[in-house]
Amino acid sequence: MQTTDDARLVERLKARDDAALETLISHYEGKVFGLALRVTGNRPDAEEVLQDVFWRVLQHIDSFRGESKLSSWIYRITANTALEKVRKRPKTRDLPLAEELGPAMTEDGRIAEPVMDWTRLPHDELEQKELAQRLEEAIAQLPPDYRTVFVLRDIEGLSTEEGAEVLDLSVAALKTRLHRARLFLRKQLTDYVSARHPALNPPNPGRPDAHMS
Amino acid sequence: MLTCRDVGQLLQDYVEGALEAPVRQRLDEHLADCPGCLAFIKTYKHTIAISKDLRCKDIPPELQRKLRSFIKDKLGQPDA
């Protein structure tokens, strides 16, 4: 359901109020551009999506009935417009299975390799920037459907239910994609930190028969 | 006693606070005794935490201008 503020803004937009148009744009341009940039992966496409989204919103505002939140509706138009662009490109690889994105396990279900804890990083501002940069690169490697879920949920901060509504997915399907995206990103960051800071690698637990991979 | 594989399957609900109290308690007991799972959960949570900082708050001023002028032009067209 839409909020009272949403309802008022929509009514003013339907009445072609210029100030309402500016309110709409200034409130949503960052959200739309942020999602568009990450889903398409390049600025020229993201700029086109940004313009198309606001134009589509204005074209269809008269038929907006307020059955969902205004933000959900705008995110949905943004995700669809950005994914349309991406789907015209050659298909990307799918993600490995969740089990392959975690540590190796023994047959009886115990972790069979040392796991690095890099959460005390970054030590300084430069490392913070490098880690954020590495995260951006890893997000760009996610298949578009996973990337869209991850950006909406973990970057834009939508709830699981709102993300599922925006993408027309079941909550279970959204959670599965989100989890695999997070596992993939965690692994990419771990590999990066492990190469940069070998001293942080924990000692081998000393079970030479434990490795499965 | 939960295995590390069980922890992997409960991980997402654990970090989102969606586990029933008794299951959560069993998982906490496992973590107290398993540095591998603890490190894995901590880095999973940290990945989520640093992702929040990537949110785009403002778009560049020239892009703001371009967007507004695009919309204004479109609205000015006879078929708009």
Descriptive overview:
- The complex is a heterodimer of chains A (about 210) and B (about 80).
- With about 210 residues, chain A is mostly helical.
- Chain A has two domains: about 5-85, Rna Polymerase Sigma Factor, Chain: A; about 100-200, Winged helix-like DNA-binding domain superfamily/Winged helix DNA-binding domain (Arc Repressor Mutant, subunit A, Orthogonal Bundle), CATH 1.10.10.10.
- Chain A contains eight helices and no strands.
- The termini of chain A are far apart.
- Chain B is mainly alpha-helical.
- Chain B has a single domain, classed as Orthogonal Bundle (Arc Repressor Mutant, subunit A), CATH 1.10.10.
- Chain B is about 70% helix and about 0% strand.
- Chain B has helices at about 5-15, 20-30, 35-50, 60-75.
- The radius of gyration of chain B is 24 Å and the shape is elongated.
- The model of chain B has no long low-confidence stretch (mean pLDDT about 90).
- At the A-B interface, helix 2, helix 3, helix 5, helix 6 and helix 8 of A face helix 1, helix 3 and helix 4 of B.
Brief rundown of the structure:
Chain A is mostly helical. Chain A has helices at residues 4-14, 18-40, 43-60, 70-87, 125-141, 144-155, 160-167, 171-196.
Strand and helix map with partners:
The complex is a heterodimer of chains A (213) and B (80).
Chain A: H1 4-14, H2 18-40, H3 43-60, H4 70-87, H5 125-141, H6 144-155, H7 160-167, H8 171-196
Chain B: H1 4-15, H2 21-32, H3 35-52, H4 61-76
